[in-house]
């Protein structure tokens, strides 16, 4: 189902559930919007759509309070004209706008490498936003999941990598360590084959200060809303080997963004020869349409998931969970995060079978709502 239509239907349901039988809304305004705030179709108010998609606690009340009428196009909401084609929902802002805490422009997505072939060692410095999550023993962690650095204080990962119902059941327990700036786990420092390339700084290790799991995780479908934030115990020192990726704008259409290009997935997970990889691996994987993907998962996918893979035996696998799929913009050489490795078939690399990723563009607002300085 189209996301905009889906959001509108959800809001219609909220209005219907809260309105009395004799209080059907009409095309005229049902409430007065604040000065300089327009009463417009919900379909044109992106922030309200983002709020509905985020399913943040209390979103129904916030949306209901914004309703200012209804017409043949559906609910109308109070939105403030931002001076462009976008609109900003008129409501109280948090003390700190989370969006201002995320890096922009050249402060994110920078890489020394813009060409990746499938299933090979990633070049040193290529993907400096890659993160390792460690379990069991803080002094000698078992690196079992991945993550993505999105700012100097936050890592984005899969909820199933940090939710105790999943981590305890798998024998891993809680996340006890977070490593940023790693390339080859067994060596320090990490050096390239060419002496012309300087060796990388030592990786940076952190304790997780706070873990925030999406409240709808695993409720709407198997591992739906598979996304979580980890706040680090201190700020990351930004270097050429530790640098955040760019988050996508809310509502980004992944297929349109990629065009004919593949996404890139990276991690230290299982390879065709080993249960895990000592060296960061990277592979190109194609976007897969839901009509191709859903039959492999018994139709149990939600709109906020996206599929990649299915070409040959190139795939993400155990240990890659929580890590990113990403790609650079066509016109700007900066990488944008598109998905989070979430689930796949038991046999990694099954020919023709895509894997399932959390579609990050649906959760950009959730991220900004949950981060702090």
Topology:
Blueprint: H1 3-18, E1 37-41, H2 46-54, H3 59-66, E2 67-71, E3 74-81, E4 87-89, E5 120-121, E6 130-135, E7 142-149, E8 154-157, H4 164-167, E9 175-180, E10 204-206, E11 208-213, E12 228-232, H5 254-258, E13 263-267, E14 281-285, E15 287-288, H6 290-293, E16 305-309, E17 324-328, E18 335-343, E19 354-359, H7 364-370
Antiparallel strand pairs: 1-3, 2-3, 3-4, 5-14, 6-7, 6-9, 7-8, 8-12, 9-10, 11-12, 13-14, 13-17, 15-16, 16-19, 17-18, 18-19
Question: What proportion of the residues is helical, as a percent range?
Answer: 10-25%
Please report the distance between the alpha carbons of the first and last residues.
36 Å
CATH fold group of the largest domain: Thrombin, subunit H
- Which architecture of the largest domain per CATH? Beta Barrel
Give a structural overview.
By secondary structure, this protein is α+β, with helices and mostly antiparallel strands. It folds into 2 domains: 31-81, mini-chromosome maintenance (MCM) complex, chain A, domain 1 (2-Layer Sandwich), CATH 3.30.1640.30; 113-369, Trypsin-like serine proteases (Thrombin, subunit H), CATH 2.40.10. The chain has 7 helices and 19 strands. The protein has helices spanning 3-18, 46-54, 59-66, 164-167, 254-258, 290-293, 364-370, and strands at residues 37-41, 67-71, 74-81, 87-89, 120-121, 130-135, 142-149, 154-157, 175-180, 204-206, 208-213, 228-232, 263-267, 281-285, 287-288, 305-309, 324-328, 335-343, 354-359. The chain has an 8-stranded antiparallel β-sheet. Strands 10-9-6-7-8-12-11 form a 7-stranded antiparallel β-sheet, with no helix packed on it. Strands 1, 2, 3 and 4 form a 4-stranded antiparallel β-sheet that branches. The longest helix is centred in the N-terminal third of the chain and has 16 residues, at 3-18. The radius of gyration is 22 Å and the shape is globular.
């Amino acid at each position: 189902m189209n996301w905009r239509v889906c959001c509108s239907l959800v809001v219609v349901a909220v209005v219907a559930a809260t309105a009395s039988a004799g209080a059907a809304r009409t095309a005229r305004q049902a409430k007065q919007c604040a000065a300089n705030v327009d009463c417009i179709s919900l379909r044109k108010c992106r922030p309200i759509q983002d709020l509905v998609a985020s399913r943040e606690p209390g979103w129904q009340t916030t949306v209901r309070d914004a309703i200012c009428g209804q017409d043949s196009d559906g609910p109308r909401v109070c939105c403030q004209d931002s001076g462009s084609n976008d609109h900003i929902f008129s409501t109280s802002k948090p003390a700190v706008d989370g969006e201002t805490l995320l890096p922009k422009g050249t402060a994110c997505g920078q890489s020394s490498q813009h060409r990746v072939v499938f299933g090979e060692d990633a070049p040193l410095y290529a993907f400096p936003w890659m993160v390792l999550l460690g379990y069991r023993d803080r002094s000698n962690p078992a690196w079992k999941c991945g993550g993505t650095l999105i700012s100097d204080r936050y890592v984005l990962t899969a909820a199933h990598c940090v939710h105790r119902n999943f981590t305890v059941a798998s024998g891993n327990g809680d996340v006890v360590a977070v490593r940023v700036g790693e390339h080859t786990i067994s060596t320090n420092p990490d050096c390239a084959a060419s002496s012309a390339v300087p060796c990388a700084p030592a990786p940076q290790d952190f304790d997780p200060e706070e873990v925030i799991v999406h409240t709808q995780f695993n409720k709407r479908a198997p591992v739906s809303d598979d996304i979580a934030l980890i706040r680090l115990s201190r700020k990351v020192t930004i270097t050429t080997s530790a640098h955040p990726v760019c988050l996508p704008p809310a509502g980004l259409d992944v297929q349109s963004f990629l065009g004919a290009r593949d996404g890139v997935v990276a991690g230290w997970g299982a390879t065709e020869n080993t249960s895990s990889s000592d060296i960061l691996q990277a592979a190109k994987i194609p976007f897969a349409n839901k009509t191709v993907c859903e039959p492999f998962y018994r139709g149990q996918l939600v709109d906020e998931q996206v599929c990649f893979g299915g070409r040959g035996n190139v795939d993400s696998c155990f240990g890659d969970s929580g890590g990113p799929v990403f790609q650079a913009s066509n016109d700007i050489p900066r990488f944008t995060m598109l998905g989070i490795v979430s689930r796949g078939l038991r046999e990694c690399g099954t020919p023709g079978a895509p894997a399932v990723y959390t579609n990050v563009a649906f959760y950009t607002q959730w991220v900004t709502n949950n981060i702090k300085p």
